[in-house]
């Protein structure tokens, strides 16, 4: 049984906003994840935010974009700010929404290496205003109408966040240009990494050869399709070893490997640690 907890938010429904300082203990002490998309904007913060085994020192006006299933926790943190959580079904509730609203899924793509977004002062003022509008609308109980208004405020918020992300990328030479094919490929890897380990499968989804798809991923990411699948397998293995009570054999089979010995070699080759040693180190 998967024991990485999915955090239950303090508000019901498919959309919520809350001030992070009011839910400090629930938010920080244990690794947890969410079923939905989460934007965490730290207006004032110190401490450490760990996302999928990578530690980020917290700073004022820093935003983390967390997709479904990402494991995170806060350590030694003093935090103020807001968390916005929403489902894809809330944002795209009908066909018109998909045609009219910004496709936020590209914003949450981490193909260029996951990193927090540093928010400029003008953007922070805009975000604060939009949050005030969304929270006011949440308090208006007019059936059917307030969700539509909230979605349009959220749409503006996400578009402004995309602008800030692009400004961050422009100031970071190591970040690569955006490619919609890479976004789609990462979505496919996320969906199929447990069962499909070969590049040919993913190339087939684009009607390309594996060689051509690898050329695209090398140009944008400096890695192959097989590298992308491998990285996702290693991440999930780490999550399960660190935060579940599943045996190594169970994790092996759940990730699509047929031989536990081969899985152990695979894990060691890409982490310099055996599965058992990694698990032991996490609990020291």
Write the layout of secondary structure elements.
Layout lengths: L14 E5 L4 H5 L8 E15 L2 E4 L4 E5 L5 E15 L1 H4 L3 H6 L16 E2 L2 H18 L6 H26 L9 H13 L6 H7 L4 H12 L3 H19 L4 H7 L5 H12 L3 H8 L2
Helix pairs in contact: 4-5, 7-8, 9-12
Describe this structure in words.
With 284 residues, this protein is α+β, with helices and mostly antiparallel strands. Strand 2 (37-51) and strand 3 form a beta hairpin. It is globular. It has 12 helices and 6 strands. The protein has helices at 24-28, 88-91, 95-100, 121-138, 145-170, 180-192, 199-205, 210-221, 225-243, 248-254, 260-271, 275-282; strands at 15-19, 37-51, 54-57, 62-66, 72-86, 117-118. Strands 1, 2, 3, 4, 5 and 6 form a 6-stranded antiparallel β-sheet that branches. Helix 4 (121-138) packs antiparallel against helix 5 and helix 9 (225-243) crosses helix 12. The longest helix is centred in the middle third of the chain and has 26 residues, at 145-170. The chain has 2 domains: 15-170, Jelly Rolls (Sandwich); 180-282, Homeodomain-like (Arc Repressor Mutant, subunit A). Helices cover 48% and strands 16% of the residues. The chain starts with 14 loop residues before the first strand and ends with a helix.
């Amino acid at each position: 049984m998967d024991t990485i907890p999915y955090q239950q938010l303090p508000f019901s429904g498919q959309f919520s906003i809350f001030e992070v300082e009011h839910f400090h203990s629930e938010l920080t002490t244990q690794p947890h994840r969410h079923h939905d998309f989460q934007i965490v904007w730290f207006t004032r913060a110190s401490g450490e935010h760990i996302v999928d085994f990578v530690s980020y020192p917290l700073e004022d006006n820093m935003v983390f974009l967390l997709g479904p299933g990402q494991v995170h926790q806060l350590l030694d943190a003093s935090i103020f700010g807001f968390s916005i959580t929403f489902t894809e079904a809330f944002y795209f509730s009908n066909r018109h929404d998909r045609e009219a609203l910004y496709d936020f899924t590209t914003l949450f793509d981490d193909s260029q290496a996951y990193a927090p977004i540093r928010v400029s002062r003008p953007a922070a003022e805009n975000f604060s205003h939009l949050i005030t509008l969304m929270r006011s609308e949440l308090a208006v109980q007019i059936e059917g109408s307030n969700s539509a208004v909230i979605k349009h405020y959220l749409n503006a918020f996400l578009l402004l966040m995309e602008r800030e992300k692009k400004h961050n990328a422009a100031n970071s030479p190591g970040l690569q240009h955006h490619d919609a094919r890479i976004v789609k490929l990462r979505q496919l890897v996320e969906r199929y990494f447990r069962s499909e380990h070969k590049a040919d499968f993913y190339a087939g989804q684009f009607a390309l050869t594996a060689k051509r798809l690898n050329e695209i991923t090398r140009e944008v990411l400096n890695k192959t399709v097989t590298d992308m699948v491998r990285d996702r397998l290693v991440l999930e293995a780490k999550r399960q070893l660190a935060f579940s009570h599943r045996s190594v054999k169970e994790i092996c089979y759940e990730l699509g490997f047929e031989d536990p010995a081969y899985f152990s070699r695979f894990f060691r080759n890409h982490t310099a640690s055996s599965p058992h040693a990694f698990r032991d180190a996490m609990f020291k």
